[in-house]
Design brief:
The complex is a heterodimer of chains A (383) and B (350). Chain A is mostly helical and 383 residues long. Chain A contains 19 helices and two strands. Chain A has a two-stranded antiparallel ribbon.
Amino acid sequence: MLLVAPLFVLLLLSFCLPIAELLAHAVYDPTMHDALPRTAAALDTSPGQGVPDDIVFTALGDDLLAAKQNDSLYNLAKDLNNLLPAARSHVLRTARSLSPEKPLTRAELTSVDPFWGESETWFAIRGGVRPFTTSYLLAAIDLQWTPNGSIGQVPADQAIYRTIFARTFAIAAAVTLITLVLGFPLAWLMANLPGPIAARLILLVLLPFWTSILVRTAAWTVLLQRFGILNELLLALHITDHRIDLMYTRAGLIIAMTHIQLPFTLLPIYSVMRTISASQMRAAYSLGARPFFAFRRVYLPQVMPGVMAGCLLTFILCLGYFITPALVGGPADQLIANFISNYINIDLNWQMAAALSFILLALTLGLFATFARMFGVDRMKLV
Amino acid sequence: MKSLGTLGIIGFAAAVTAALPVGAQEQQLTIASAGGAWQQAQRNAWYTPFAQKMGIKFNEEETSAGMARVQAMVQAGNVTDDVVTVDTAQVLSACDSGILVRLDWSKIAPRDGFLPGAARDCGMGLDVYGDVLAYNTDVVKSDPPTSVLALFDTKRWPGKRGMQKIAPNNLEWALEADGVPTDQVYKVLATPQGVNRAFAKLDTIKNDIVWWQAGAQPPQLLASHEVVMTTAWNGRIQNPIDHEHAPFKIVWGNEIIEYDMIAIPKGSPHLDLAYNYLAFVAQPENNGRLGEFIPYGPVVKDSVKFVPKGTLAKLPTAPDHMEGALPIDMEFWADYGQDLNKRFNDWLAK
């Protein structure tokens, strides 16, 4: 036990903890609760729905003034804006116009900005001041809380994530299938050719495997572009009479991803095939089996653990692709990881990024569990 | 016990490495910027002379995610960047979120010596650049475009066009192409109808757009003939024209004018040195010197006389480029950016 302890501690500290902390962002967002402590307390004492009474408005006025002092106003405004579009400028404008002398009443604040007299506003605030929230997780699957307390669909023009999850899984499945179709015969060749030739083949497969994914993606842009090598070749061979668009298309993306993933599918299959003696097939033939029957009943069942392992590896790796879609794919070929990266790097909305990651992780684990139950983990041979 | 012993050794080694540099090391300033020709120009104009003058070491980081990086650093309480260069659109909201130092201008330079809007609470302008249109004369041989709005005329200039994958600029150009006068653009864009109008105009060319994200991409798109025209930052096109004789042309009509900004993250480990650097860049002779290396204009009023003569005509602020030019409205994007960016990303994904 002590021998694995260092690795276990390393995994715990550098892998599990950061993931857990990131995922916590999806459900825990104390920004509004911390910025509006008095409002949150006042809302607790006057539950219900719709626009609250004067006590809450006075508390809100004090909170906004305090938030203006300690730099939390803008994060508050941004957070509320995530729940209620256009709220940001209302919060900022109101806070600017407040003066500390007099306690605020409902009538005054709604006359400054009618925004504060609308029930949608207070629905968003009541939801936002609770530090634990399911809003981001729901938004990640195109759902939202409605004012009457039920879950509803987001407006059609904002509903994008289900499509993108479906697209991510569809592209991953397509790439997995193509690598299998290409890799299976190649693995068979490698396993059955005489030693020196097989060794060279393996080297050819492994060589790109050692090159960075970014370099290989960049290389594909050179090959696939309108005036790139592939188009020149197709024209020179008179296969097409006009240049075809491969860059920034789904086809180009699948070609590039297939190339990168091929070794991942191929190597587990190859390692299993190597252990199968050629004499087994000969025995099947000698007992009267036709080639296809012998392949299906004798060879395939023994290779299946390698096939499953290779396909699962490629499929799961494909779910996380983002450099290749960003560089080779078009706007309609961006995968879920591209959106996560955008939320982290550009929008600085880490709650949404965490929620999307959470859904992706849950879907992947669910898929893995189903797969393991159907075929059995112990039957998979990863190496 | 074996593992504990190993941990102890690692801990000891870490403590030794952490303790060593303090005495031995010279002062250093870490800057995170956007890379490419622009960072090269900054290096020549500012980093190297400043490092020599102060006798320090200059650390460079290249990143296209400046503010996300700062936010992560500030949240983790482990800030390693001393100064960062920032997009105009991001500096205001980052300032508002409290992750940038509110600048003490008495340590830098008089605030009124800058062009309007270049000396901000949390950010100092570095240079003026133009968002322009560019094409390759090997591709567009006749009927050259004269305005950025040629983007929207796919009949006259068919083919793919490169555009930056962000909402700012593109929405303004879409409205201008739809007939909104330049001085009315932000007024219209502040209304829901105006936003719908801009996206409807972008819809008309959506299938013809190749989106770029890094400033180094537009010259590549032009060189590989992948696009018939592309939006770009003027310096990224001018440099290959000047230094590599690339057959590119810049179209100035309806350019959008922006400032590059520099800011200090809260918790910068070398705050005084960071202020020194800002003051150094704000000196007129230094601010004008960037123009020697990339055609971006100075933001300090007195530095125009230090800009090399040959560069003046290539600046986005040259008089004949300014006609119909639109200065970007940073306040507008600070207020509406969050919603417009979300709408833009949803629109892209459809």
